Amino acid sequence: MSRIERRFAALKSAGRTGLIPFVTAGDPSPDGMVSLLHGLVAAGADVIELGVPFSDPMADGPVIQHASERAIAKGVGLANVLAWVAAFRETDDETPIVLMGYLNPVEMYGYAAFAEDAVEAGVDGVLMVDCPLEESHVLEPLREAGLDQILLASPTTAETRLAALCEAATGFLYYVSFAGITGAAQLSTGDIAERVAGIRARSKAPVAVGFGVRDAEGAKAIGEFADAVVIGSALVDRLAGATSADDAVGRARDFLAPIRAALDAR
Amino acid sequence: MTQITDFHAWPDAHGRFGDFGGIYVAETLMEPLAELTAAYEKLRTDPAFIAELDRDLKHYVGRPSPVYHAERLSKHVGGARIVLKREDLNHTGAHKINNTVGQALVARYMGKSRIIAETGAGQHGVASATVAARMGLKCVVYMGAVDIERQKINVYRMRLLGAEVVPVTSGSKTLKDALNEAMRDWVTNVEDTFYIIGTVAGPHPYPQMVRDFNAIVGREARAQTIEQFGRLPDVVTACVGGGSNAIGIFHAFLNDGGVRLVGAEAAGDGIETGRHAASLAAGKPGVLHGNRTYVLSDANGQIVETHSISAGLDYPGVGPEHAFLKDAGRAEYVGVTDDEALEAFHLLARTEGILPALESSHAIAQAMKLARELPKDGIVLANLSGRGDKDVHTIAAREGIEL
C-alpha cells in the first residue's frame, strides 16, 4: 500500500475529510522550506502538494504565478525540490507528498532520471498540470517507478473522458471545482456537490476538490461531499509576506487551524 | 524515425506530428479543444465554409498575392534568381490575415461572440482586431507590457479597430506571457469566447488549423512559379518564429522531394552569444504552450528570454510541425543575425523599392545566401511575409537616427 493509499484509508476509517495544502517550493524562502513542510503537517495537513516553479504556469492565477517567479529568481529548480523532500522524509515517513507542476522541467531533467530520483527522495505522486490523460504516455517511467500520476477532472470534462479518468485514477483524483485558473474567486458549492458525488461513486481513487477554496467556510462546504479539500492560492498569498522561516510556519498554522477545525467539526 | 512518404498526412489522429505536437493543456481545456477540433474537422471540408473563406480571401484580403522576380536584387547578389512571394501586399500588410480571416469564420460558425488573441509585435493583434471589427465581434488582445511599450503604433491601431488591449505584466512581459494570459482567459470564458492563436503553435488543432489557413501561400506560389518559370524552385525559404508563414509556404512543397526547404530563425546577436531566438537551431525538445516541440529553456526547464531585433520572431518555442520536419530531415533551419537581417532590409529597399518587415528580412538574408550557392538559372523562392512600415522606428533607433 502506498503512502497516499494508507493516508486516505486512515481518513476514511476515522471518518475525516483530508486537508491538502499547496505551497510553491522555495517560496517564501528556500532555506525555510523543510521547516514549512513540517509546519504544514503540524497544522493538520494530510497530504502536501508541493508546487514545482515554472516560468510559464498557464493554468495558474496571479498569486501562484508570482510565487513561482519569486522562487525562480532565487534559483529554485527540480533538484532543490527533491532535496527538500528528502530532508523532510528524514523525520516524516508518513505524510504523502505530491509534486504539482508543468512538464518542461521534468522533460529537461529526463523522465527516467526524475522517476528514480523522485522515488529515492520520497515523493509519492506527481500532478502535471499540462499532461492530460491523452498525453500521459510520457509519464510511463514515473508510473513504472511507483509514482502515482494524479489526474484532474473539471466541470468541462465530458462524460466519456470522465469515465476514463475515473478508471485510470491513482492516488487521488483532483476535481477542479470550476473552469478557470487557480485562485479565482467564484465558488458555488451547490453546483459541484452533485458532480463530485457522481465522480466519487465511479472513481477508483478518492476525490479531492480544489480551486477557489480560500477559508474555513468554503472548506467545510466542500468537505461535505469530497474525500479531501485542496487549498492553494489563499495559503500561498498568506505566506508571501513572511519575514522569517518561523513566521512562515506561524502563518501556515494560523491560516490552516480554523480550516482543520471546520473540517473536523463535520 | 521511419521514412516518411507523405508529408501531407500529418498531424495524426492524436494531433501529433511524429514525436511533436499533441495536446499538453490543463484538463479544463480538453473539452473546448475537442469541440473546436470537431467543428474545424467539419468546416474544413464544408463547401459553404470554403466558398465563404475563398470570397473573403479574394475580396477582403486581396489574394492571390503576386510572385515577383526581384531582378535587381538577384543581380546584386550575383547568383540564382530570387523570387518573392508578396504576402506584404495583403490587407493589414502581412500573412497573418490569412489565418485570422479563417479563424474568425470558424468562431462565427461556432456561435462565439467574443474573440481573444495574443500578440508580440502587434501584427497578429491588428489582424485579429481587423476581422473582429468586420464581423462585429468583441475583441480582447493580450500583449506583454514590454511589447506595448515597444510597439505603440500597433497598440493604437488595435484600439482604433475597436479592440481592448490588455497589458500582461507577468513573467518576461512579452509574447510568451501574453499567450499564457490569453490561455487563462480562454479557460475562464470558454462558453462565449474563441481564442485565435496567431501561429502554428499551441495545442491541437491549432498547429493544423493555422497551417491550413496559411497553406494558400504555398499553393499559390507553387502554381505561380511553375506558370512564370516553367518549373519548381530549387529552394524555398522563409523566416521562422512560431513558424506560420514558413509552414504556409513550405506545405505545398513538402512532397516535392527535389525542392529544398530552409527556415531562417532569429540568431539575434549570434547563436554563440546566447542572445537569440533560434529554438530549432539551438533548442531541445520540450513542452511549451500546449505542444511538444523544440524550446529554449535552461537547465531547470525554465523557458528563457529570447532576443531578436524582430519582435515577431522573438519566441522561445516553434510550431511542432517544424520540429517534425527538422527531425525528419525534410527541412533545414538556420540562424540569421540581426545585422544580416538589417543588411537585407536595406538592400531590398534600395534595389527593389520594397521595405520588408524585419521578420521577413531574415528570409531575404537567407535567400541571398542560398542564391549565391546556385547557378544563375536557379530559383530561390522567399516568402516576403510582411511589409516593413511598422519597423521604421525600430530601425531608425538602432541606427541612431531621430525621427
What would you say this structure looks like, in words?
The complex is a heterodimer of chains A (266) and B (403). Chain A is α/β, with parallel strands linked by helices and 266 residues long. Chain A contains twelve helices and nine strands. Chain A has a nine-stranded parallel sheet with strand order 5-4-3-2-1-9-8-7-6. Chain B has 403 residues and is an alpha/beta fold. In chain B, strands 3-4-14-9-10-13 form a six-stranded mixed sheet, with helices on both faces. A four-stranded parallel sheet of chain B has the order 7-6-5-8, with helices on both faces. A two-stranded antiparallel sheet of chain B has the order 1-2. Chain B is globular and about 55 Å long. The model of chain B has no long low-confidence stretch (mean pLDDT 96).
Provide the structure class of chain A.
Answer: alpha/beta
List low-pLDDT spans of chain A.
none
User: What's the gyration radius of chain B in Å?
Assistant: 19 Å
Shape of chain A: globular
Gyration radius from CA atoms of chain A, angstroms? 17 Å
Mean pLDDT of chain B: 96
